[in-house]
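Long-time lurker. I teach an intro course on protein structure, and each term I like to show students one example going from raw sequence to a predicted 3D structure in token notation. This year I'd like something fresh instead of my usual example. Would anyone be willing to generate the tokens for the chain below so I can use it in lecture? Attribution to the forum is fine with me.
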Amino acid sequence: MRILDPTSAAYLAVRTGVASRHMVHVIARNRETGAQEALGLWQGDDHLTIAINGTNRTYYGAGGLIGVEPIRAGIGLEVRMLQLALSPLTPEVAQLLRGYDARLAPAEVHRGLLSRDRPADC
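-- Reply from a regular --
Happy to contribute to a lecture. Here you go:
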């Protein structure tokens, strides 16, 4: 059974229509400057800025992140591999793959619950 935080549980309890979207945030080394840079992708139609742990992050949409395989939940320190389907046609994915050294870069995957009442979110 998945345990939800109180905010998510209350959001789902309203039953007004919710869309679940995945977001991926990668911090990789820029090949030209050597600096660590962040890039976020999500499954929505447009760019989205949201706060995660008190920091605003921009996630680029419009087809960059095509899909995320099912996430297996579990307790423990086991490293779980996760495959993403990315579109090489978007400039953000091209930057991630060619402009950054993303090999072994830290990445976070989040699931966002968005209201279907706001068409721009879905």
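Some talking points for your students: The chain has a mean pLDDT of 83. The longest helix spans residues 91-99.
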